[in-house]
Amino acid sequence: MADLSAKDVERAEFAFSIYDSDGTNVIDCVDLGSVLRALNLNPTNATIEKMGGTKKKGEKKMKLDEFLPIFSQCKKDKEQGCFEDFVECLKLYDKQENGTMLAAELSHTLLTLGERLTDPEVETVLKDCMDPEDDDGFIPYTPFLKKMMVLL
Q: What is the pTM for the complete model shown?
């Protein structure tokens, strides 16, 4: 790939190999998003599906040489958010300007904005990533985002 550096290709090959379950240089397309996220990209589910990702295991396979152009294209995609972008978004809910927001507002945001999560998905995310609420129902949002980004 002309637009990927040798280091990018090496990283992509390594991430791809982790999801290559039988060593044939092929992944199941249900893992496409996971491979891209392992490479510090944050494609939306719609982007993953558009790039050939599937929702069910066994529907489609992808070779490394098919993956590299997808990786290259996703690297260029400016619609992905990064950690700093997410912090800026949650600052909108930081009424006291002290790095906290209401846990209920975070839950509402996850349920209603962007690629909406289901109630069980939100419960899992909050359980896994959110620090305990203070007595007034506030949580620090930066640690939440750091934990969330690791999971992606």
A: 0.58
